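Reading is simple: each integer encodes one residue's backbone shape. The lines below illustrate:
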Amino acid sequence: MRLSLLLAMVVCGSALAADDTPSTFRQYCVQCHGKAASGGISFDKLLPMGEQFQQWEKVADAIESKHMPPPNLPQPSDEERRVSAQWIRAKLSEIANKNAGDPGRVALRRLTSGEYAYTIKDLTGLDIDTENDFVPDAVGGEGFTNFGDVQFMADASLERYLQAAKKVASHAVIGSGPLQFFADPGKSGFELSALNRITKIYTTHGFRTTSAEGGRPFNLEKYGKAIYAAWRLEHEKGLTVEKLAAEEAISPRFLQHVWTVLKQPSAPYPTGEVIARWRKMPGTRAAATEIQKYLVDWTRWLFGAGALAEGGQGDERALVLTEETVSVAPKQPMKFNLFNRGTKAPGLSFITAVVNPNSVDKPIVVWHKPTVRFRMADRSATAAQPLIAVLDEAMRKKVGFGQRPDGVAIDPMDFAMTGDTALSLELLAPTGARGIDIQAEAEIISGDAKDAVMRVTVSDQPELSKGRPFSMLLGNAKTPGFEKWKAGVLAFAAQLPQNSQGEAAPSDKDPIPPPYNNVYNQPERDIYHVTAKYYRTDDFLMDKMLDDPTRKNLDQAWIDLKASFGYYDTFLGFVSTKFKDKPAEAAPYVKAMTAEREAGKRALLTAQPGHLDDCLALAERAWRRPLTSGEKDRLRAFYTNSRELAKMDHDGAIRALVARIFVAPAFLYRLEQSSGLLSGAELASRMSYFLWSSSPDEELRRAAQAGELNNPEKLAAQVKRMVADPKARRVSEEFFGQWLGFYRFDQYKGVDTSRFPEFTDEIKKGMYEESVAFFDYLVRQNRPMKEMLTADYTFLNQPLAKHYGVTTPVKSVRDVEMVKERGGLLRLGAVLTATSAPLRTSPVKRGDWVLRRVLGTPTPPPPANAGTLPADDKAFAGKSIRERLAAHQRNATCASCHSKIDPLGFPFEKFDPVGRVRTKYSDGMAIDDSSKSGTGVEGLVQYLLTQDKQVQKNMAQKLLGYALGRTMLASDQPLIQKMAAAGGDATFAQLATEIVTSKQFRYRQVKGVGKNDTE
């Protein structure tokens, strides 16, 4: 009687009457499951009943299924089993209904290593690997790392968090603009950050039509859009610059400028030609694009541009219109070298073009004493020879040595060409020649007006656009005709430039600044590239394209770039050396550089108070709530003490403050202090860590501050938005990965690669990406969750497709893409590999995975004397794994569990230990993948569909446990049942919305209130 009373109190709690407990427990259960814990079940540890409902459900299931008591012990009757199980379920139902929605006890949760990394990334943009910096995460609750009861903080762990915070702080960019972060730390990171910001503004807002050394054009369509919009402004009523600029995605400032240029009543060539075409154009976008093409190509035509430069081939010249590049002389020397990486010497073409279409004169070009020498494959050179000597008789006649086209005799070694002529020659090259060096002097013969300007070119191709040409301009400087032409070209360069800016680091793409010598291969140019490095030429972009905030950002980036190293000292030192005896010439450069340096210093100093404000704003985002006035004061005091007491400079004090923010408990722990209903900030934090494993974004913080998260409809809208966001991929990594066993599979080391060398890091990473991409597709594309099992698609790249033997063409070598083969959770390579042994497949591990992960009905741990199978199937002595397991099941102790596990594992046998399809074992024995749960994975899928209710219940329970960070309670059952009742057609967003709008998600348990059991 005493034992019965004790059992009743243990089972039911003090509020239940002793005689309410079925006698079945006393008669059949207490002997093994009283204070003892046979099979992991101890009645002594099953209080309170609401918190231990899962264990009680296992007790009820074991009684109903006749798995307990064991066969060798006395058995209750069927009626006794029914009454006992019904009693347990009735008590659990009573507790669940009475306490439905109880938030339960949620232990204070620290950020997991994954959450820490994601939060840092979202707050700073830094993708810093901190995984090895921390103690590995423990797992608890429903099987996840975000369960506070298993998270501990030792002194050594805190020190690691401090070091990680300092590591993050070392990436802070503290310059003339707002506080930000960059991938590289320290001084080099500061320099690279500034250069990166400049380049981003240039490539986003500017355009480049021409460049050398592999510099590709970008944003050329901006001209076409502006030309088209300007035409509409001119011809359509009711339009504004702002409206059209917004439609065309160009800046109003740029459109206004282009429109102003095109409306000029008269303009010199070549701008005048652009205007004339614009006035005649039909109002179509295609017509505007044609004008854009003319505008873009004109400079390339002027300089005789060749093929785009790449890999040491093509035209590597900087085709930029400047005073220097459009200068002329009537006679100029020419040296040109060509080397062919192929198997023969390059061709040779002389090309001339009149580039001043308004000239009166019809010019002639004379090539004086052209000589050629050949270079062999080892780049050794033959002796120089006159060009005439390496031509056969036909080629000599074609050239016409010794006489101009107008009949005037010239030197027998010279030849002449009229304007707009191309002369392609075949040379008598020695065997094995790969290159040629050409020297000559070109002279323009003009009439009395001397207004002709000619471009003369030597190239390896008759078509300039395909060759590697060398060009120069011939003409008579300081003549009215040339001066007019030059003024028109420079006006064109100023009004409709080819590039809206130069390169921040010019290299060979752009001119370098005076007083450095801009000629290639000169010592001063080399000194510049090594020491000063940077040159700002973006007046057009600043004046004609950027809005005021972007201008400010660009100015700040340039200040930071030049402050990141000794730019001014380098420049001024060079000026001092070059003009050491000419102070008057040095003075303008010294004055300009000194003024610029002082302005930069003032900007850096002025920005310092803003950096402190930025840190406070960062703390609000990092701590996931508004700061109190006291917290703001303490953070400011921390900065002041760092400056005054620790004698840190501004940069050091800001970095220390950043580290202080990231090591604070408010950052490392998900603190919740509300009693009952969570505050907006706390609820936003729960939502963001549930769906993004990170801190709330600006929109979620706004909604929290506006009180919108108290509205279920607003909550549902936020869930929909968040699930569609790319950051929702983290649900696939963190929730599905941990639940289904492929978490961080890219680091998996459980395969013996001496047996399976094909399991490379590339394949391992591909399998991980396949798994994540599969669930990311289900989540973000609102697919029904039943496709987790039934999908006929997966996500592969070329290496993984080849590994699997998939025949469907796959385009991507690196990124995975959808492929209509294999498909579904049960065929994921990561799952199949993780549930295998290092040397062989394991139906036991795979079957246990199905029971534990998919169905949520795990068997008890095996007894100590259960025994094991050989690790290598080669040691099976000719027996199959099925035969081995059949012998194993003859042990009655093992049979009860293996009868559940093995039928769920055998259907996987046609997949080998690294996820490939197979038909035979390594010894040639045929594979039998049949079982009572179905034949093959296809049959197993069909079986699991018959268990859909349990599959959905398990998924709902896991998802709720992950969202709440605790073990499921009886009071959670109504919500779990509601989620499961939605069935396989429910989407992840629907399930997440049910959770986010639930009471247990939106409330925090108050101590002493809302218990899960009656007491």
Summary: Residues 1-18, 1008-1015 have pLDDT under 50 and may be disordered. The CA atoms of residues 367 and 639 lie 73 Å apart. The longest strand covers residues 364-376. The first helix runs from residue 2 to 12.
